[in-house]
């Protein structure tokens, strides 16, 4: 279970936060202003594969922010996930 050393109120508008999930990860959501508290640690990674002919490999983002835009393959470690 997630440690409840969490926010109880939104740091922006002081509304009580609701527990929820996004992409199978636990989050806290402010029903008033929409602020989301993600429980992913700071570590992240990115790669830039280069093909033999010099082309690079990009991905098209599926989720917001910037859904549908091109990006470098990358990601965050989710709360409770082992690297």
Poorly predicted parts: none
Distance between the termini: 19 Å
Following the backbone from N to C, one meets helices and strands in this order, namely: EEEEEEE
Order of neighbouring strands in the sheet with most strands:
1-2-3
Instruction: Tell me the overall shape.
Output: elongated
Question: How many domains would you count in the coordinates?
Answer: 2
Helical region count?
Answer: 0
Number of strands: 7
Mean pLDDT across all residues, rounded? Answer: 85
Summary keywords:
single chain; 28% strand; 83 residues; three-stranded antiparallel beta sheet; mainly beta
Description:
The chain is mainly beta and 83 residues long. Helix content is 0%, strand content 28%. It is built from no helices and 7 strands. It has a 3-stranded antiparallel β-sheet with strand order 1-2-3, with no helix packed on it. A hairpin with a 2-residue loop joins β1 and β2 (25-29). The radius of gyration is 17 Å and the shape is elongated. The two termini are 19 Å apart.
